[in-house]
TrEMBL record:
Superkingdom as given in the UniProt entry: Bacteria
Keywords, alphabetical: Nickel
Pfam families xref list: Ni_insertion
Name of the featured protein: LarC family nickel insertion protein
Length: 389
């Protein structure tokens, strides 16, 4: 299983994350078409480390330079050249920030200002980087315990310890520590991103490293550079635990066509799996149970979709752990062309699953049976694995 580990011992903000992921992929600044915004990126050295230092630039447009509400940010993201998955991730992060801040301040979510133009732009870039890594085969993103920082700050006549209450509230349930830096170690937007984009938290797992990237951020008033390290690698154990949510509801008055539509919408909205089970309800009424497996970050949005698109009056939720085989994608070179094959497990427990769309396309183009393509792809994948490729 390919994993990305974010070592945030020196803190976490969007600039550090953007720089670390760009350095990891050795990529140039992404042009996402955010109106009036650009990314300034340069390579800097810190001790024995060379990494990317990122700064967002913004030329005021019709929306102005003031902090934007969620609706304004959404309009800007709709214009951007980012994937639907990246757009959804960015909005999930901002919605969580708005929900938590509204609870803390006792006001309506629609009144919350969620991000400045520069922050909204950086968030969109980070979301695109994360989703691109997911598409390249990264199955889990892990984060080290976050250092909150030390010291105090003043706000409205009060002197408070860092971090800010919003940051603490956003990090509920995530491992944290004091850290060694003076000042705030984690920004609120980075805290919201940590809860929505990462799959697990804790120490670095045993892995075979493939690449390392560094994101650098200068402390205020000429202080030392803070460094975020991103490590990409292949997890060494054959199995792992994965945290998921199970959402369920019972349906006794929906047509098959409508349930098919709901399944399609749920999968497009980020569900990991969707399935229906025949059941009997009170008074022996035949019915159907809808089950949705998803990550915790998508549970609220998918529950809302189930309530909106089905006839149910409520959705049950369970937080579960599942044991999974580590998985990775390889390209099997067949006589019908390259075929993507998912390889799961290691040793005697290894399993192969050729990508259906690749096989179907090769079968149509070569005029051969689909099963012939699937069989050859599986055999070639096993042979490649035995050769150590």
């Amino acid at each position: 299983m390919r994993v990305l580990y974010l070592d945030a011992g020196a803190g976490l903000n969007l600039e550090m994350l953007c720089g670390a992921l760009a350095d990891l992929e050795n990529s140039e600044p992404l042009d996402i078409g955010f109106p009036g915004a650009a990314l300034q990126m340069e390579t800097k050295r810190c001790a024995d480390v060379a990494g990317r230092c990122v700064q967002a630039l913004y030329a005021p447009g019709p929306e102005g330079t003031q902090t934007w509400d969620l609706g304004t940010v959404k309009r800007q993201l709709d214009i951007c050249k980012i994937t639907q998955e990246a757009r959804r991730l960015a909005l999930d992060i901002l919605e969580r920030l708005a929900q938590v801040r509204a609870r803390l301040e006792g006001i309506e979510e629609k009144e919350i200002k969620v991000a400045s133009p520069k922050q909204a732009y950086l968030l969109a870039v980070c979301a695109q980087q994360i989703c691109r890594l997911r598409q390249s085969g990264v199955e889990r993103i892990l984060l080290s315990p976050l250092p909150l920082g030390t010291g105090v700050y003043s706000d409205e006549g009060c002197t408070l310890p860092v971090p800010r209450p919003l940051t603490l509230a956003l990090l509920k349930g995530i491992p944290v520590c004091a850290g060694a830096m003076n000042g705030e170690g984690v920004t609120p937007l980075a805290a919201a991103l940590a809860t929505q984009a990462c799959d697990d938290y804790g120490p670095m797992p045993e892995m075979k490293m493939e690449a390392v990237g560094y994101g650098l951020y200068p402390e205020e008033k000429g202080g030392a550079l803070r460094v975020l390290r991103a490590v990409l690698g292949e997890a060494q154990s054959g199995e792992g635990l994965d945290r998921i949510c199970l959402l369920e509801c019972n349906l006794d008055d929906m047509t098959g066509e409508a349930m098919g539509y709901v399944m399609e919408q749920l999968l497009q909205a980020g569900a990991l799996d969707v399935y229906y089970t025949p059941i009997y309800m009170k008074k022996s009424r035949p019915a159907t149970m809808l089950s949705v497996i998803c990550k915790a970050a998508r549970a609220k949005a998918l529950s809302a979709l189930m309530l909106r698109e089905t006839t149910t009056l409520g959705v049950r939720r369970q937080d579960l752990e599942r044991q999974i085989l580590n998985r990775r994608m390889i390209k099997a070179q067949t006589s019908f062309g390259p075929i993507g094959v998912k390889v799961a497990g290691e040793g005697q427990a290894v399993k192969f699953k050729p990508e259906f769309e690749d096989c179907a396309q090769a079968a149509r183009q070569n005029g051969v049976p689909l099963q012939a393509v699937i069989l050859q792809a599986s055999l070639e994948a096993r042979a490649a694995l035995e050769r150590g490729e």
